[in-house]
Amino acid sequence: MGLYANLELMEWFISVYTEAISTKLDMGKSGGRYQASGSDSF
User: Fold this and answer.
1) What is the reported pTM?
2) pLDDT score recorded for residue 17
3) DSSP track, 4-25
4) Are 39 and 22 in contact (CB under 8 A)?
5) In 10 A of CB 6, how many CB atoms?
6) How many CB atoms lie within 10 A of CB 5?
7) In this predicted structure, what is the pLDDT of residue 33?
8) Burial state string for 15-36 with b = 16 or more CB within 10 A and e = fewer than 16
């Protein structure tokens, strides 16, 4: 089950992501897309 199925989990993930990562979240229905920046903590 993905994040879209659980609104509470999706909102949590987005808030944690924006606090930890400086780049914009690029999230599609099948998952997130990440860009290498060298400073990501995940």
Assistant:
1) 0.60
2) 83
3) GG-HHHHHHHHHHHHHH-SSPP
4) yes
5) 12
6) 8
7) 64
8) eeeeeebeeeeebeeeeeeeee
